Amino acid sequence: RNPNVVAVLLEPIQGEGGIHVADHAYQRGLKQLCEERQWLYMVDEVQTGIGRTGDWFATQQAGVSPDVLILAKGLGSGVPIGACLARGRAAEVFKPGNHGTTFGGGPLVCAAALATLEIMESEGLLANARERGEQLCAGLETGLASMAGVVAIRGQGLMVGIELDRPCGALVKLALEKGLLINVTSDNVIRLLPPLIIEKTEIDRLLSDLIPLVRQFLEGA
User: Quick one: how far is CA 171 from the chain centroid?
Assistant: First the structure.
């Protein structure tokens, strides 16, 4: 009922917020609400997009099509690029030259993005993200889910979070000493974002190194 609302912007999976996955039914309901109110349904897939969750976009798994889709990070395989995709009414808002960007569509970054998409298709990296993500989550569930101090293990594809019941920033340094690059976000969530090319044996190694480390931390903290 607020006439000032014109759009809704959603992260299908909160990255910095602790790997919280927006329920698929919630996403579909929100999209329907936007259509009824004639709001734009906008989705931030800077972290989740380009195969991270096992599909090109996380919203595909919910069966919804946004009016505006925001991409970056994985699109350029490390080359800084940002992209804003729009369709329908939203696509009619911007005209060429209306808006400049810092990491826009220069020829170098666009060549990197095209190469990224081509390689991901030719090497089957979407399927690999799904399979390795399932392997990772299953291993974490087996090794940690029943342990006191582990609140939840959640995510999609190769975007996985382990929520603990206490701050765990110290784990970053401990993991680095074992050759593991992990990240802690929201103070108490271990965030795992393995490369989409990761192999089965490498997931096995990740699990064999990380699970004892988390167990040791929880038992000694």
Answer: 21
